Amino acid sequence: MGKAEVGSTKYLSNKMKQKGLTRLRWFCQICEKACRDENAFKMHCQSESHTRRALAAGQNIKQVTDDYSRAFQQEFLSLLKTSHGEKEIHANKFYQEVIAKKDHVHLNATKWHSLTEFVKFIGREGICRVTEKEDGLFIAWIDDSPEAMKRREAVRRKEMMDKGDEEREMAVLRSQIERARREAEQRGL
Predict the structure, then answer these.
(1) Could you tell me the CA-to-CA distances from 98 to 16, 23, 46, 137 in Å, in that order?
(2) Mean pLDDT of the chain
(3) Where does the C2H2-type domain start and stop, copy by copy (predicted)?
(4) Rounded to 5 degrees, what are φ and ψ at 184?
(5) pLDDT at 84
(6) pTM
(7) How many CB atoms lie within 10 A of CB 41?
(8) How many CB atoms lie within 10 A of CB 119?
């Protein structure tokens, strides 16, 4: 079966199908190849180049999976840190942002079988703050860099000073009220 001629209707149809993101289900992470449908994926898996790469990866499958897992986690967290900071965001909505990039590492190539499993993992590790609400899991980056710690400490100190100032002002007001009451009692006698 030959290729469609340049400029033909079939050629234009094929080019339009190639644009945009493909289904994650038909993506081969080892070859980094996206297939348009189930049949194309099946044919790709039977190809010689895929078989060769799969055999090479199969020699040390745990190492390959760990590498993909590390790359996915690093990519996920760096995007979370830069785009949302310490603000809370729905995990699934954020995952849509991650997979919007064409060259991302796919979750199905990692050691985590689902997004929920991955989110719970980064929550257990203390990398992110994970809260479960009725509409799903929410994640927020925990910034534990020295600069962030200094900022938080400065804010806490300022709040303590402001609180101390308020307490002093209240004490002065109380003493003025007490003095005014005593003076009023003395005048009344």
Answers:
(1) 23, 14, 30, 16
(2) 83
(3) 28-50
(4) -65, -40
(5) 86
(6) 0.63
(7) 20
(8) 23
